[in-house]
Design a protein that fits this description.
The chain contains 11 helices and no strands. The chain is mostly helical and 192 residues long. Keywords: Membrane, Signal, Transmembrane, Transmembrane helix.
């Protein structure tokens, strides 16, 4: 039933597609981008009900005034800007770690009947890690999560290397390897 499970992802998209025309545009978009104050008021009434919403409109106008003084950079300008260079390097390194770590190649080492379960488990671990990250970042801070995440990911990859080399000697190493992959995904999601 995996094809049915994969096709079920289309149901929420279909619901969104059908209901989207009945929702109003974003009030800040209408006011800031289009300059449509009446459309903004109508959208606010539709979203929040009748009442006095002038304070909300004033807040949007203040944000619009602030945005006038902010320069929007193109991608090329962003890459040339020295103030953003370290952030850009960090994003490139963080994204490269997942692409180059080889975790997808490890998944293909399992027997065919395990691969769908590993894929499902990885997806669930990604959801879990995003929930955990939002609570842990306030408690420990970004730097601690990055250091801890990379340290734990390295440890998990070392253990995973050992379990993959011992898979033919012990039947349960397959399952231990799957658990390590799940931990890797969780530590990546919480850290980097």
């Amino acid at each position: 039933l995996w094809p049915m499970l994969m096709a079920s992802c289309g149901l929420p998209a279909l619901v969104q597609l059908v209901t989207l025309p009945f929702f109003p545009e974003s009030p800040p978009y209408l006011l800031m981008r289009k300059g449509d104050q009446e459309g903004c008021k109508k959208a606010i009434r539709q979203l929040w009900g009748e009442g006095h919403h002038q304070a909300d409109i004033d807040d949007i106008m203040k944000e619009k005034a602030t945005m006038k003084n902010t320069k929007i950079l193109s991608v090329l300008e962003l890459m040339k800007e020295p103030a953003f260079r370290w952030q850009l390097y960090m994003i490139i390194i963080l994204t490269s770690t997942v692409q180059l770590c080889g975790i997808n190649a490890v998944e293909s080492k399992f027997e065919e009947y395990l691969i769908p379960y590993v894929s499902l488990g990885v997806g669930l671990c990604e959801c879990l890690s995003s929930i955990l990250c939002s609570t842990l970042i306030d408690r420990f801070g970004r730097k601690v999560l990055l250091w801890g995440g990379y340290t734990l990911m390295g440890s998990v990859l070392a253990l995973l290397t050992m379990t993959l080399s011992l898979q033919h000697q012990f039947f349960w190493m397959h399952y231990f390897s799957v658990i390590l992959i799940f931990l890797f995904v969780i530590f990546y999601g919480i850290g980097p």
